[in-house]
């Protein structure tokens, strides 16, 4: 506390005076009179420091962009002031939100704000109480503004208008998106690399940076920027607004049920089916970037057959004879699993042999099992989508109750939810005999052969990317016993 007092003594007192031309004509407000009153108050309070004077002559309170006010705020940020005085609160601003923002800044830098007409001093209990009341009123005003903005944004979104900065691959003309052909080619490459080549977001960003392909503002690509591109529904023609909560310092993606979306209203760069397939991979079990780029073939892919935990790479053996091993992470980190470790070279060889046997053993019993497994995954994915649709509809009911949307908007949302439910029911009706088993068998053989060939000619990193497009996970059960779960 002593240090704070000493710091305040070294800082200056400031007085701020403002008058607009209209006020002078209407009320006869004098800048000289303001200065006299404020300096007299300083003397009455026993503050011997000569105050710094900031005067904005002929400036309205509607805007905070005033020369002397800007200089005053700069001194606050520089820590040069201890008190700021005005004759009335409206000398600073007539807008409550602007005034509270400035007071927040003053408090952040330990500066007292005093208005002598209203006996308002943020350094006193009564002043802080008044500030809390004003803050409550301002919060109410902010909520009212947010509701009006939200309603206007819904109206604009339903008209197909793009409401923010255009995403990569597009340009904005008259609030409508138009495809930028060169960037659209890059977008398609990113989706292809991620879905068809099995590259992760980190690997895609690395590829683009290596080729010298800049992002929109000539910045380098990052894992985050690639993931944002892969999850942006604009590329499949869907306009989505209210997706991100920007009210806090750290922006956060809202629950999908809160989004305002409109399908088939934007120019399409990525086919909808392909976009949905990418979302399945993005929302599924992801391999960490470090696992993808590690020099170990099954890193991030190998699971413990005993407890299901991931198996990490380690080293074993004597000082002169060290060798890689895969070891259950639950065993290593928690001691909760009793599985043993396995030589990495042996496990990777079992994996390759397992793929070879898979090519030779695809028969009319194995393929239906694989189809059933894939159907369960698809069913789980669509059930999650249905739950999102139901939450979104529930939110629209609340919006209708609050007179924010019309009954027509509510009916559209209900139709959309029912279409999703119909899609789910349609999936349930699919029978195994409706699949072309011979075609699926050939496709699996083709993918397996491609992976096997890649293991001998590609780098470990590239080979792993290809494996991830085909293999869901691998479990080691015992010495020489391994299970490979593939994707259809």
Automatic annotation (TrEMBL):
Gene3D superfamilies, sorted: Putative Large Serine Recombinase, Chain B, Domain 2, Resolvase, N-terminal catalytic domain
Keywords annotated in UniProt: DNA integration, DNA recombination, DNA-binding
PROSITE patterns membership: RECOMBINASE_DNA_BIND (PS51737), RECOMBINASES_1 (PS00397), RECOMBINASES_3 (PS51736)
Domain Resolvase/invertase-type recombinase catalytic: from-to ranges: 12-160
Record GO terms (molecular function): DNA binding; DNA strand exchange activity
Keyword field contains Repeat: no
Signal sequence coordinates: none
InterPro entries found in the cross-reference section: DNA_bind_recomb_sf, DNA_bind_recombinase_dom, Recombinase_CS, Resolv_N, Resolvase-like_N_sf, SSR_resolvase, Zn_ribbon_recom_dom
Pfam family, one: Recombinase
GO biological process: one example: DNA integration
Lineage: superkingdom: Bacteria
Domain Recombinase, residue spans: 167-288
Active site as annotated: 20 (o-(5'-phospho-dna)-serine intermediate)
Protein name: Resolvase
Organism (species): Desulfuribacillus stibiiarsenatis
